[in-house]
Amino acid sequence: MELHPSWQAIRDAEDLVPVPLDDRGQPVVPAELSAEGGDERWLVIAPGNARLHPDFAGVLRARASLRRDVGIYYADEAETEAGRAPRLHLKPAQNLALLLAYDYIGSPIIVLQTTFQRLRGFRADAGPAQVYDLVLRAIRAGIGVDRIPVVMVAHPQGRPRIPIAARRAAVEHWIGNAGHLLEVVQGRTVESLQLRRHFDTHPEVTLVVPTRQSRQTHVTDATYGKPHIVNLLDSLAATDWPMERVQVVIGDDIEDGAIYDGRNDPFGVRRILTPRANGAPFNYAAKMNRLWREATTEYVVLMNDDIVVQQGGWLRAMMTFAMDEDVGGVGARLLYGDGTIQHAGMPGGLFGATAHAWIQQPAAAPTYGDWAVVHREWSMVTGALFATRRSVLDTLGGFDERFTLEFNDVDLCLRMQLLGYRIVYTPFAELLHYEKASRGATLPRGDEVALFLKRWTELLDNDPAFHPGFDLASTFITPKQAVDSWYGR
After folding, report:
1. pTM value?
2. Residue 347: is the preceding peptide bond cis (ω within 30°)?
3. What's the pLDDT tens digit per position in 157-209?
4. Are residues 312 and 412 in the same domain?
5. One domain, residues 210 and 311
6. Per-residue pLDDT reduced to its tens digit, 422-476
7. Total tally of structural domains belonging to the chain
8. What is the phi-psi region of residue 13: left when phi exceeds 0, alpha when psi lies from -120 to 50, beta otherwise?
């Protein structure tokens, strides 16, 4: 096939081998792949009609010189159709949950020849998803996969997309013998997939809830005027989980328990008094550390009392990932009482620290990459609803109690990541959250802000789940457009 002229630099480089994709997305495998190559020989896989970065080889070599442990690189893309501003596809570092939802990696894929040989090349049965399948198999094999956060490919005729049926088949092949535990179903968009777990035996789960019996006065709906904890308990019965496998541990600051009189909940409830002396400051982290240690189950869900369950499958969605040994915690999609987004992930670097992406945007509003409606990994999620394991909390010692109100959940997520755990967000657990309704809006203390920034600024400024090319002064995630870029010419 005839390649775009910008591929000439690839052809002329001794350490690069062009592997163009044809009009059907199939790799056109060159004869060079059968020859033995050294560690420095890279296969460059991209659509044949794509334009390549003018210094493609130089950018790749500079990156590869820093990471000898990486066998596959991918990079950012731009769609440059005539008459339209370039549309950028900026990508996080390796993000397995997102990759299973859709092919965010796209092209280019740059594969070390020895890695390609180790994986035994493309799997012909994968059809138009052969490259996507190759990346999945590399991750399973423990091969390093990393991004180059630079636009390396431009598509004058639109970015190619793999048919969802082919991607679904590739994910099912990747699941393999675990197919009796996991299934792949349609996601919340026409182009996305959802990973869902089967349960022969549902594990026991403890829900840990702090309260001071505050009442809902922020939104006029069926919950108005009732104690938040009562609204939560009333809604929990709709959860699609065997109720005899659910325990609720309530940490109550109020001694009077009249609001619980006459209840006959289908799940177990244990109320622990956590009184505070008059004028004593509230320390959320200390209270939650006491409460999760009361759990007698491995699986624990930390949740605020101003949460209301709307859909029964929320716990199943969270446990789909929380049961993975390499996952430290799972966050949910939370909506305010007026239906706008409260939480759909927390990128690092926003406003010099972190913030909730798309906060107060309509629930149906489009989001960059559909990231608010697909499961993906973030470096941080809110602790307002957080599924984890008792053993992980034991290892970390729970929350750092120096963060009395804010940052304790973010700090916990980041410490989990330092131990190699993934933090997953799933939109298939969608609940209402009357944020801060139970304790009011309180500004964090200056010493806590200083401690948080001193500990985490370097990581937040280089958040692997985000991208340096985004506008960091807006919660509506959007790329910064380069004034003078090679792909815009």
Report:
1. 0.95
2. no
3. 889 999 999 999 999 999 998 778 999 999 999 999 999 999 999 999 999 99
4. yes
5. yes
6. 999 999 999 999 976 444 456 678 899 999 999 999 999 999 999 999 999 999 9
7. 2
8. beta
Can you tell me the distance from the alpha carbon of 424 to that of 98, in angstroms, rounded to the nearest whole number?
9
Categorize the per-residue pLDDT at 39 as very low, low, confident or very high, splitting at 50, 70 and 90. low
Q: Residues 209, 314: one domain?
A: yes
What is the spatial distance between Cα 479 and Cα 465, in angstroms, rounded to a whole number?
15
What is the pLDDT at residue 24?
85
Q: Is the pLDDT of residue 240 over 50?
A: yes
Q: Can you give the residue range of the structural domain that contains 184? A: 5-197
With pLDDT > 70 as the criterion, what percentage of the chain qualifies? 97
- C-alpha to C-alpha distance for 146 and 151, rounded to whole angstroms: 14
